[in-house]
Write a structure and sequence with these properties.
about 220 residues, mainly alpha, Arc Repressor Mutant, subunit A, Four Helix Bundle (Hemerythrin (Met), subunit A), 2 domains, two-stranded antiparallel ribbon, 9 helices, 2 strands, about 5% strand, disordered N terminus, transcription regulation, GntR family transcriptional regulator, DNA-binding
């Protein structure tokens, strides 16, 4: 049998990843290989190669003699991931501050103005988009492929949890203030302060998620 081109199983992995992040394949759901092959119009070989990729990324878990299931992110997972990603993104902010040009600062200024406008108008989905663009900008400016790779892998796991930390009371304005603190440190050329501010920003996201979980639990408790 001829080897399956990498592009095919990569394409399949990408399509399954989109379905996982989009909610079509929710956490805990079983991936029926026969049904997927029929729906995607592919053979078992590229599907199984794609499943291996997603298992390696942590988006799926494989159970012997049972098959693959979409991974479920627990509170313990979040407690363990956030301190790690806080360290990594803090380091990215440190390196970005050292490498940012005046043109980079101007581009970041525009992104932060957009973030402020979204916050002032209470447009949470747009705030999330601007927030993501800012984090990506810092990682790009850091220009460290190892940092980018590991942060990207952890972000995929966090996307599984469908986190909504901005719904915690007061979190929107707090998040904005944290971003502005990181940016102020970058503009001042203070890489240590930028690192510390970014690390604090990520850790406070975890605190906000706990508040959201507590509020949801209290509404469910009679």
């Amino acid at each position: 049998m001829r080897p399956v081109p990498n592009s095919l199983h990569d394409e399949v992995a990408s399509r399954l990843r989109e379905q996982i992040f989009g909610g079509a394949l929710p956490p805990g759901s079983f991936l029926d290989e026969a049904a997927l092959c029929e729906r995607l119009e592919i053979s078992r070989t590229p599907l199984r190669e794609a499943l291996k990729v997603l298992v390696a990324e942590g988006l799926l878990r494989h159970e012997p003699r049972r098959g693959c299931f979409v991974a479920e992110v627990t509170e313990r997972d979040l407690d363990e991931i956030f301190p790690v990603i806080a360290l990594l993104e803090g380091r990215a902010a440190h390196e970005a501050t050292q490498k940012a040009s005046s043109a980079d600062v101007a581009a970041l200024e525009t992104l932060h103005q957009r973030l402020q406008q979204c916050a002032s108008e209470g447009r949470i989905p747009d705030y999330y988009a601007a927030n993501h663009a800012i984090h990506e900008a810092f990682i790009t400016l850091a220009d460290n492929r190892w940092l980018a790779q590991v942060i990207g892998d952890l972000r995929k796991i966090l996307r599984l949890a469908r986190l909504q930390q901005l719904h915690a009371p007061g979190r929107l304005q707090q998040s904005l203030a944290e971003h502005l603190a990181v940016f102020a440190a970058l503009k001042a050329g203070d890489s240590a302060a930028a690192e510390d501010a970014m690390r604090t920003h990520l850790l406070r996201q975890r605190d906000a998620l706990r508040d959201v979980a507590r509020n949801q639990q209290s509404r469910l408790t009679p």
